[in-house]
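About this split. The held-out portion is used to measure sequence recovery: a designer receives only the structure tokens and must propose an amino acid at every position. Recovery is the fraction of positions where the proposal matches the reference. Here is one held-out target exactly as it appears in the evaluation file.
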């Protein structure tokens, strides 16, 4: 039998730390972005009746894990054990130790037995121990960072928040973050809402029953066509525009018709608003650029006018490239780099405005809670970087060269206008309004963001 122990120091009470772990969304927040975990079912909470079934993918291997809870003693401890899964034996105790009114620690103790006896230990023992160290380093970071962010607005009452696109990359992370922080999240779905769920049905193409929207304190609008899913044919461009400007107008008209509209609507937008601008530093006062994406973003933001006329506070978060281990561009980039075939796109001198997934979630939260934020807000890290510098940083962390460029001509031939706009255009946006508001970035540099998302010595 093996034993693993880990301690996490927190600047909150043991009661607050325990409460965070009890809420929906905490498990999802604690799963590292460099692991592939999918929840199949869950029942109960952390008490002795709680059950959680999930799939874990390790390379080409997928296995199912069923965990049951026991030893429930709030706010001191809870435990879980593997009922079915890859280990012969697995028990995990989470102990919450009070160090005063606003200090505590979490002491994790795991006992586990690897199958196949000595042979299993020889083959997998060191890898499992290393994986536990990496996983719990991330868990310590995650719970401390989330609790610190929630504490900024701890005196505010919890919100009921509708979220379109709640199952997407940002939406799923934001939903889990908000839920674990005590807010009520209502996913807004295009089909019928499931019975006995918090879902709200809406129609991005026109009229729908707006009564379930009554009573929402806020709405986050993330839904939209994936702009990198296809070459930009005339028909696909129309779908992109309709999924953003058309859907935003339909939503904002519905919200404006309510007797009790939400106080704030936070709409995703993009730094594509600025177009291809070379080395020019761009803040929220910079003019709109040229090109298809700039036109889409401009019309996307204008479509929220019905909400503004209703005196709803509207925030347009102009997102840069989101650096995330679970989705988006980064996982696709890592594969060629690991094979030694990575490098910059084109000449690598074009600027990238980017933001870590953590800080994108934080920017949405700040937009919801900080009443000084209104209108356009650049959701980008304070350190834009050239494409070549990004490639070199990724190569360094993966211990691989970054010497194989993707020629600009190949990008244009393979991907057309979409490839040029997403890979070759230059945008050097800075988060002027976020910084003025006092927003604190968890990953202000690309190296920090990549270390967190890839689990490399952060």
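Reference sequence for scoring:
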């Amino acid at each position: 039998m093996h034993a693993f122990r880990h301690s996490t120091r927190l600047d909150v009470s043991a009661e607050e730390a325990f409460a965070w772990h009890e809420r929906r969304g905490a498990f999802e927040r604690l799963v590292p972005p460099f692991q592939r975990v999918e929840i199949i079912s869950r029942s109960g909470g952390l008490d002795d009746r709680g059950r959680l079934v999930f799939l874990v993918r390790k390379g080409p291997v997928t296995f199912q894990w069923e965990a049951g809870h026991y030893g429930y003693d709030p706010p001191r401890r809870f435990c879980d054990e593997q009922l079915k899964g890859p280990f012969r034996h697995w028990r995990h105790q989470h102990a919450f130790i009070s160090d005063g009114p606003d200090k505590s620690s979490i002491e994790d103790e795991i006992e586990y037995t690897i199958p196949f006896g000595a042979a299993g230990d020889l083959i997998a023992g060191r890898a499992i121990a290393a994986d536990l160290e990496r996983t719990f380093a991330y868990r310590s970071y995650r719970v401390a960072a989330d609790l610190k962010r929630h504490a900024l607005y701890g005196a505010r009452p919890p919100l009921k928040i509708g979220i379109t696109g709640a199952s997407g990359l940002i939406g799923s992370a934001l939903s889990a973050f908000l839920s674990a922080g005590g807010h009520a999240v209502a996913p807004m779905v295009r089909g019928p809402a499931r019975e006995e769920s918090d879902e709200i049905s809406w129609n991005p193409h026109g009229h729908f029953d707006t009564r379930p929207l009554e009573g929402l304190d806020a709405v986050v609008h993330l839904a939209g066509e994936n702009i990198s899913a296809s070459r930009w044919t005339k028909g696909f461009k129309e779908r992109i525009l309709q999924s953003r400007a058309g859907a935003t107008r339909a939503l904002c008209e519905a919200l404006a018709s309510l007797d009790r509209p939400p106080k704030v609507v936070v709409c995703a937008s993009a730094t594509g608003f600025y177009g291809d601008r070379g080395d020019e530093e761009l803040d929220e006062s910079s003019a709109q650029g040229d090109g298809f994406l700039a036109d889409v973003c401009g019309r996307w933001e204008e479509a929220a006018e019905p909400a503004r006329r209703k005196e709803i506070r509207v925030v347009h978060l102009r997102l840069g490239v989101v650096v995330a281990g679970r989705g988006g561009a980064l996982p696709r980039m890592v594969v060629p780099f690991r094979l030694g075939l990575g490098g910059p796109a084109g000449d690598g001198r074009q600027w990238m405005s980017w933001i870590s997934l953590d800080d994108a979630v934080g920017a949405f939260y700040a937009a919801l809670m900080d009443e000084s934020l209104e209108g356009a807000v650049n959701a980008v890290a304070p350190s834009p970087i050239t494409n070549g510098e990004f490639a070199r940083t990724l190569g360094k962390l993966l211990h691989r060269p970054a010497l194989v460029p993707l020629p600009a001509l190949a990008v244009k031939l393979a991907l057309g206008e979409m490839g040029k706009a997403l890979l070759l255009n230059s945008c050097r946006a800075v988060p002027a309004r976020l910084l003025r508001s006092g927003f604190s970035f968890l990953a202000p540099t690309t190296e920090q963001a990549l270390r967190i998302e890839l689990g490399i010595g952060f």
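Annotator remark: The chain has a mean pLDDT of 95.
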